[in-house]
Amino acid sequence: MSFLIYYIIIALIPIWAQMKVKRTYSKYENIGTASGLTGAEVARKILDENGLYHVKVLEHEGFLSDHYNPINKTVNLSPSNYHGRSISGASVAAHEVGHAIQDKVNYGPLRFRHRLVPVANFGSNASWIFILIGMFAHASGLFLLGIIFMALAVLFQLITLPVEFDASSRALKQVKHLGIIQYDEEREARKVLSAAALTYVAAAAVAVIELLRLLLMYTNIFGNNRDE
């Protein structure tokens, strides 16, 4: 019964975060900014202000599929944010440009996260293979190796938090400095960015909880015994 409650909780955390994001985004998607700029125009304005003339702003299919691609140096905005003139669109566009600015100034956590990507991907995919084999074969070494791989994936989730929070902070400074948002729009833009950050916080929280559960399982199953 306790395991059922546990899995319900870790399933509900990201669902709640996604609902919060969609609700906040939808609310301010219908409220325009005083500047009247589209998300694409907001992104271009901030990029040019920071000397990032080579970074392109592209339309990307999907709902809230917005992202910055550090490989081909593009800010990719979902259709509603690319064409829309809302507080939500301006906030999301500015946030993605925040990542482009991080890239330009060689922001440490962003660089570290990029280097972790292949390791984290391998860790998240391979960890359960070693954990399950270790569990059924009663091989503590394999189980522990799986936990280490899982820990690398968790580290990626944790390092993502300062990267995302910093991008939002840079975004707010830029839209205020350039007059893209004015007066009480700052409070509303902050709500959009804070709601979006919840998805990363939720993902990190679930990852940490799962890692702790595996460590507890390792202790319970193997205790102080060693494989022969």
Automatic annotation (TrEMBL):
GO molecular function: peptidase activity
The keyword Transferase belongs to this UniProt entry's keyword annotation: no
Pfam families, per database record: Zn_peptidase_2
Keywords: Hydrolase, Membrane, Protease, Transmembrane, Transmembrane helix
Keyword Secreted applies: no
Superkingdom of the source species: Bacteria
A biological-process GO annotation: proteolysis
Transmembrane segments: 6-21, 116-136, 142-163, 192-216
Protein name: Zinc metallopeptidase
